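User: Run a structure prediction on this.
Assistant: Running it now.
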Amino acid sequence: MPSDSHEARASSRLRPPSLGLMLAEARGLFELNASLVLSPLLMRAPRGDGHPVLALPGFLASDLSMVPIRRYLRELGYDAHAWRMGRNLGGLARIRDALRARLAEIHQETGRKVSLIGWSLGGVYARDLALQAPDMVRYVVTLGSPFANDVRATNATRLYEALSGERVDDYVELRDAIAGELPVPCSSIYSRSDGIVNWRTCLLHPSERAENIEVLFASHIGLGVNPAALWAVADRLAQPEGEFWPFDRAGPFAIAYAPPDPTVPA
């Protein structure tokens, strides 16, 4: 007879996004085009203070995928950096040391704390880095990153396990820590129409230094180039070091944000 804890885990399991949502991921190209067309509006975002930002790509992606967001942040006055680790084939435990070394390199070169932007799996890495080295991290922004709840609820889980050599159910303590409260301010940007990861896996527990920001109708592969998501990233990074206030959903892309969800546990 199964135990109560086993039954609880089974009942709480989430499903990956539907086939229809996954096929609709092709709209990411339109999100990129929208950002190009709306670039004059995007440049009205709050300016940066020149602090370094490390952009971490998603699963199977490389630094090339982060070029648009790095270029945008540089134009706003940030010192944006690539991760320089080739294609992201997964394996959190395998690359933890290399990631921390890259963070330390930027921190040492600039003499400043580094903000982290992680797209999908890159956001999982970003949260882990903040736990490892909070003295080097200023802020964490994740984009469609499956770090909470049932993280198996993605359409990439089997491929991740095959390529990385790691099972998602391995390293339970590390996974739970990444899903918990971070020692630095953080924002999770996600979309309920994500076709790769179940949006519930992107939800952090809101607090005085942590928030969820839902972008309406965004795709998973488009979150890093979606104009509303880019604006939110720029707005969050513009906060003074050590300070945090909730994201203001007003502005030129107000229609693209859902109001804060009161059903998300605080």
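DSSP finds ten helices and six strands in the chain.
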